Amino acid sequence: MNEAVEAGLWGLFGGSALLLGASIVYVAQLPQRVIAAVMAIGSGVLISTVAFDLMDDAYARGGLDSTALGFLGGAAAYTVANVLVSRAGGKHRKRSGSNARESQASVASGAGLAIAIGALLDGIPESVVIGVSLLEGSGVSTAAVVAVFLSNVPEGLSSAAGMRSAGRRPAYVFGVWGAITAASGLAALLGNVALAGADPDLIAATTAIAAGAILAMLVDTMIPEAAEETHELSGLITVGGFLLAFMLSKLGG
To answer: Phi/psi of residue 194, each to 5°?
Structure first.
């Protein structure tokens, strides 16, 4: 299979978790602590992926300068964009617990577009990472795919619940998340194509930018929500997710 097409398909798979989360709203009523536990696991997996896959790979390719500048730049770019999206009404796009009502109120007040843009903001760096991971020729990063998938399920669930409460029809809800899923696949494909044969420093900087954006996203959105709902168990669950990704990266290597 063509490598770029494979990258796109893996990106679609990671993004499809948004559709899975939205589907759960219509077929089941999961306890909020279960949803938050999934988010905690996803946080641990993503932290491990940032530390052992992305930053290690960026450093090996481009050294400390490209890695450090990209990492800080990615975090700064995400933070600025996240502030703009939050002010437009997308602040609680990953909320699944007690603050989910605020997410639903945001949708009802016309901020559904901001929430969708926020989902793109969260997902594009993750999708680019999937595409770039194939450039080494050793196959996709299993840990990266698992991390992206687990982080998208609660987001699709909580935001779809808000859209449903605001009176949106299923066709609208699944249309929005289907479009974002397609964009995730496209981002993975374009990331692979654009960086194929590129200078190692450029690949390193791009990987580090994605890593910085992902870590900033975790601290701003996923970790607070997971801790709020799972309370004293959040640390243990997150460590379990971290260990899972660490094992996957070693077994895959």
So the answer is: -65, -30
100-132: per-residue pLDDT in tens? Answer: 555 555 544 445 566 667 777 777 888 888 888
> Among candidates 89, 214, 108, which has minimal Cα distance to 164?
108
Per-residue tokens: 148:
């992206």
Question: CB atoms < 10 A from the CB of 111, how many?
Answer: 25
221 vs 19 pLDDT, higher one: 19
Distance CA(51)–CA(212), nearest Å, equals 10
Q: Is 160 exposed, middle or buried (0-12, 13-18, 19+ CB in 10 A)?
A: buried
Non-local (6+) Cβ contacts of 153 within 8 A are: 17, 18, 20, 21, 24, 35, 38, 42
Amino acid identity, position 57: D
pTM of the full structure: 0.79
